[in-house]
Amino acid sequence: MADIVDIAVNTEGFSTLVAAVQAAGLVDVLKSPGPFTVFAPLDDAFAKLPPGTVQTLVQNPPQLGRILKYHVVSGKLTKADLEGKTSLTSVEGSEIRLDLSDEFEVKNATVVMADVEADNGIIHVIDNVILMG
Amino acid sequence: MTSTLTSPPPVIPPSQHKYADIIHRLEAGGSMLPDTPDNLMQIIGIYKAYAVPMDFYWRDLLYIAEQVFLEPFPFFKYFISQEYLDLPNHYAGDTADLRIWRGEAAAHPELLEFMATGEVKKKLPKLLHHLWHDRVNMEFAEACMRAMLWHRHMYAPVNQFDAYLDTDEYKQNADRAIRAYFKNNPAMLALYKLFPEMFYEKVRELSYYSNLGLFWEVMAPVFFEMSDIYDEGGFKGVPDAMNFLVNGIFAIAGRPIYHHVYVDGECYEIIPKSKGFTWLYEAALPYVEAVFYRTAPFRGTKSYNAQAGQVPEDQKDFHYGILYADVFPVGTAGIPPTLLMQDMLHFLPPYLVDYYKQHSRGKDDALIQLGITFQRSMYNVTSAVIQALRTALLYPLDDPNPKHRMANRQFFEAQMDRFLRPEARLSDIQTHDYR
Q1: In which domain, by residue range, is A82 found?
Q2: Between residues 16 and 75 of chain A, which touch chain B (CB distance below 8 Å)?
Q3: Fewer CB atoms inside 10 A, N or C side of chain A?
Q4: Which CATH number fits the domain that encloses residue A101?
Q5: At residue B304, does pLDDT exceed 90?
């Protein structure tokens, strides 16, 4: 099986995320044994951000890394594992709000594809970049 | 046969909040400030008048944080070095990291002219301008910085800057800079050995100088750009001006917030950029909370009886910022907000000068009139922050899901709850009679 980074690289719709992970120098971390749960925003999610947002972040890898780490949780958590939970603590340190009562929602993002298995964790594909606060 | 036009039922029922009208306006993409040409003219004019002194504030804040540092007698901290006056803005000019705003990287020409000749329009020795207070009032910038330092812990734990100031890592970084700075001053080194915490606290204050300087470095070109767009006929209403700010907040959100100190040309990183601290979380949001909402009662304006509960027990309930200010006593007492008003008075665009002449007591109470304009403009900036937070953390205004719309509603209502206390000026700014 492929790791989290390989899956993102080989799947259409994650080119911005892959570029961001590379710019932030997080490739090695996401290739490590982990395991991690990654909420992976699609290219369209990054495109929704106002002009300049991604550019400023890419120019500043530590700041970009912090936003990306907010999308990562320690442990391999499938959708079934997350049922009934209302929040998770991200690798960045801030809480991520969850709502699985109707759809599978992570803060203000909706999971459009859950439980993509990788050999060092699991990916849930989301339609918005999530931000701390 | 007749047909009737029916609009689709609203996704959620109307708000029952005291400020329901304003909440519905926010839900429609508006600002807390009503959308009128008069309001638009006033707020853009004052943004321009604010941006000129701000162009000095950010430069001098960084000069103090990075160069003056722990100078025991900082008499000349407002005498900015040429290097810092010439510092290219990171978000304006051809060398900008991000070129969204068209302004120049160099200090604004109106600022340079004022620094040279002051209000008296005469080139006198710098010290005379300084002692006469015929200069940019840095005391206002320092008051804002002090509000941020004093309130601290704002937006914790998302704001990580503040917690970092109490870490051993921070103290070690500060220690290196302190020892280097005083390497030829045994008296200060001895004092440092005796009272290290006093020195660390002073360095924390300087870190907030840097924080605020880096924050305002961005806001100055944003406000200049807004003024230019308005002059070109570009903004159609108050919501346009608000949305411009929302986009600006996002564009720059990831700008690093750090504190570097230079001793004999060598850089000491007290807060390195690698900590990942950002403009939005570590500067902008704490600034808005500390300065727009909270600050502290100004000495000399009013007597408070703390035992009678006239000063809140919790710092989070402090309400002495511009959103609550009674501009009249503030405008007569020679205190930080008055200093800002005095600074802005020097750089008003002609259309605002004419406007103030036509109202109230004309030129005689222009300081108060512009203070109230400033209050209106900061309600608009706060609206931009509220809409930016809603965009970042919640849902689009036209989201078809009632649950999402209700989450937005609850967020807006919680924000408006902060203006339920009688001191809030939200109701006042809804009319044009409030001047």
Answers
A1: 4-126
A2: 49-53, 55-57, 59-60, 62-67
A3: N
A4: 2.30.180.10
A5: no
